[in-house]
Amino acid sequence: MRPAGQGRSPAKTGEPAVTFPVVLVRPSRGWADLRLGDVWEFRELLYFLTWRDLKARYKQTLLGAGWAILQPLLATVIFSLIFGVLLQVPSQGVPYPLFAYAGLLPWNYFATALRRASMSVVDSAHLITKVYFPRLILPLAGVLGSLVDLFLALLVLAGMMALYGHFPTWKLLTLPAFLLFATATALAVSLWLAALNVYYRDVSYVLNFLVQVWMYATPVVYSSAIIPERWRLLYGLNPMVGVVEGFRWALLGQGELPGLFLWASVGVVGVMLVGGLFFFRHMERSFSDVI
Fold first, then answer.
1. Comparing C-alpha atoms, which of 227, 231, 216, 225 is closest to residue 256?
2. Contact 221, 80 (CB under 8 A)
3. Cβ proximity of 245 and 262 under 8 Å
4. What is the CB neighbour count within 10 angstroms for residue 218?
């Protein structure tokens, strides 16, 4: 979107002419024209879409935003009984409920954001076919809107830590960095899926299965310490490994910073995010024709 000049409205005799900006919309030229500045120009629309999704999500629900708390709590209870009590899975020296809940926080955020952002373009077909705006705003709104659930769940973790007498350390100061990493991971994956979902509606069917399998390939209910040394670099190519282990390290303050896992995950997320931006911008040229 680029300004191309100004237009004038007809003015009555004796009244000054009113000028309006004229905007010329052109398709992106080549893979390198990401035009990320357009997202900032449409930041008010991003806020509106994020707020709209939040209101629609809990509208006419009995518990409202309480679902953001209830879901990880119930999952923590089930995992604690199966993996903590029956299987005696190691939990890095902290009570297993804390260990599991700290891992579920970033995972639930990622899974929720991935579902919403991946479906965002198709769900907003009525907007895409009528008005121009940077299509990147749609998956971005899905990712940002899911942060509210994460913040609510963090309050429950604070209460659980006080109940168990386990208090945070200085490592908690690094949590914003890992939160940004989790957001970038969700956006990186959803950019690919959101664009593909416009052309292949199979994505919506595959997504639920993908999330289920991906969770057990991520150290949510177990510690990555059980992974043999020779497989750790390969295991770290799963971007959610660095996210989950980083959250646990920052929130619970146990162990050492997962360096190998973290840097492998950061590298993968960086490649996926840059590639996803190029891919999404390239594919969006024909969204309104296909959708």
1. 225
2. no
3. yes
4. 23
User: For residue 127, which amino acid is it?
Assistant: L
Q: Tell how far CA 106 is from the center of its chain.
A: 9
pLDDT at 16 over 60: no
243 closest CA partner among 220, 213, 274, 273: 220
pLDDT tens readout for residues 80-139: 999 988 888 888 888 999 999 999 999 999 999 999 999 988 888 888 888 888 889 999
Parse the chain into domains and list their residue ranges: 40-286
Pairing, β 19-24 against β 2-8: antiparallel
How far is Cα of residue 91 from the mean position of the Cα atoms in its chain? 26
Q: At which residue do the structure tokens 């009113």 appear?
A: 18
HSE-CB for 87 with a 13 A CA cutoff = 13
Report residue 10 as tokens: 């007809």
CA 33 to chain centre: 24
